[in-house]
Structure formats: structure tokens, C-alpha cells
UniProtKB/TrEMBL annotation:
Domain FAD-binding: 123-308
Protein name per UniProt: FAD-dependent monooxygenase
Domain of life: Bacteria
Alphabetized UniProt keyword annotations: Monooxygenase, Oxidoreductase
Organism in which the protein naturally occurs: Paenarthrobacter aromaticivorans
Pfam families reported for this sequence: FAD_binding_3 (PF01494), NAD_binding_8 (PF13450)
Amino acid sequence: MKKVEIVGGGIAGLALAGTLDPSQFHVTVYEQRAGLPAVGTTLAMWPEAQEALASLGILGAVRENSPVIRGGALRSAIGVPWLSVEGQNLVGAARHTLLRLLDSAVPSTVQRRIEKLDAVPSDAHLIVAADGVHSMVRRSVWGQSRAAKLTPYLAVRGVIAEEPDSETVGEYWGRGDLFGIGPSSGGTNWYASFRSGMGPEGIDVGEALAVTRRRYAGHSQGIQHVLRVATPETSLAQRIWTTPPLRRYSRGNVVLIGDAAHAMAPNLGRGACESLIDAVALGKLVNTLPLDQALDAYNRQRVLRTQQYRIGSSLMMRVALAEGAQPMRDKLLDLAAKRKSAVNRKPKAPGGSKTSQ
């Protein structure tokens, strides 16, 4: 039995523990959190992430406990719709529900240790860093220059018990801020981002919520209603961190997965999905190939893709949270909305195609 040490028992760590073959590996998961979180906002599960959940045997349970995301609209700060976005068979899984179901997929042979490690384990066939954006393993093995980088933005998010009005669902872009409203299991999921000097550690959620209410006081009535109903007990507040690029996610027998490898801005909604895909891909490769070949294949499969998403999410964050360029951005979106409306109003030819001008 070969020893595999997984540092971190979040989404990526649990998914990997549930994928590794218990007949080949003695797996230990180190997690500093004693239990699963009670508060968690909704994570959009894209089709490839759903395939990873299916391979773990929990996709059905995730779907049973999660709403389908059918789309929404990109809107101005006051709620004027610019562009409609159709759903792509996305499932909105609450983070705490997803963690609970991933936990249920972990074999009973996996050893759990509630412990915060200060050093990288050394006596193992494979050491996996699934310890998030502030990964101790990443800093220790790749160096302090590859540690997480703080952005100037605060993320405040939460859930409320009311179902969302279909006319308010979507993402709102203002001057230097954004706000999102979408479905959650039994209610509404919401999130806000804007520039802030709060934190970066130990942010008081009640204070962050009060700051958010003041920030969005002039925004749409739908946003203001959500923030009036929101409570600190069902909300979270964190500064947004990202990680610098890496050309390879493994060194020797140490490998990075999830946010430890490619923590990205939340603007594309891909972070949790890519963590799941990382974990299942790595587990399947390690189950079937010698370790060096498995890690080479993992790097080929995952580095380019996830680094593209990391760059794309950063660019999208800059556009969505634009300040000086916000008027030009809004004019371009207004023009796009008018053009789309004009195309949709064109009369159709008898065969069903639109007439040409």
C-alpha cells in the first residue's frame, strides 16, 4: 500500500480522496477545520464538473439538492438589461451541500486528521496540496514568490430565504462594483464585489454587510431588497486573492490541485469546477499509471486550461469592476443591446429566416 498524503479537506481534497483506489493507496487527509461549514453560497457546476461528480457517484444527489441555473441577464447598476444569458445545463450547488456529499464519497479506509500542518509531509509516495489559495505546500516547495497575491477587491456574498424574482436574476455592473442575484436551494444566492481596504484577514461580516448596503444604496431596487433581507449569519465576507502563474503543478512527488494550483478571481464561476476536475483527473491518472507518468499527464491536461481560466477571470474582473473606463464600457454594452434588439425585430421571410436588408 502506497501512502498518499492530502493536505486540505475542501472540495479538491475530498474529491481526490474519493477517487483514489483504496486497494492501492493508504490515504490520509489533513484538514484544520473540525467540521463542515454551516454557511455556503451557490457554486455553478458546469457540465465537465458534473461529469466529475458523476464519476464520484454523487451527481444525482447534487442535482436533487440543487436548483438548475436557467440563465439571467447582464444589467446596468440600476437594472436595465443589456444582454440575456441562456443557461447551459448548470446546477447551482450550495458549497456546504457539495462538501457534505463529497465527504460521503470518501472511502472509510481514508484516515482523517484534524491538524494544521506547518511543514510538508515527507514520508509518502505522493503529497498533494489541496490547501487552498494560501497553500503552505505551494509556498514551501515553489517559494514565497509564488505565494498568493492580494487584489484590492472585497467579495461579500450570502443567501436569503426568498425565491428570486425572475426579473432580477443576473449580474449588475456599476462603476467599480458588481452584484449578482441567482437561485439557491430554497432561496436566493447573491454576491457583491467592489474595491475595499477592509481586512485582509478577520473581516467582520456585519460591518462588511453594512458597507455593502451603503455602497449599493443607489443601485436597483432588486439589489437593495436583497441587502435589506440579508443577515450576517447567512453571509460571508472575504478579500479576493489570486495566485501567480505556474508552468507546472508538480515537483518531485508533490503536486498542486484546486486553488493551491490556480486560485482565480470568481468572475467566470470556474474555480470550484476546475478544482473538482483537477482532483478526479489526478486520481484516475495515479490509479492507472506509474507516478512520474501520471504527474506528467496531469500537467499536460490541466496546466494550460486552468491558467487560461485564471487569466480570463482576471480580465473579466477588470471589465466588470471598471471605474475610469466604466462609461465607455456601458456605452458599448448599450450599443450591443440595441443591435440585438434591432436584429430580433427584423421581419422573417416565409421560410423562417430573417429578411436581408
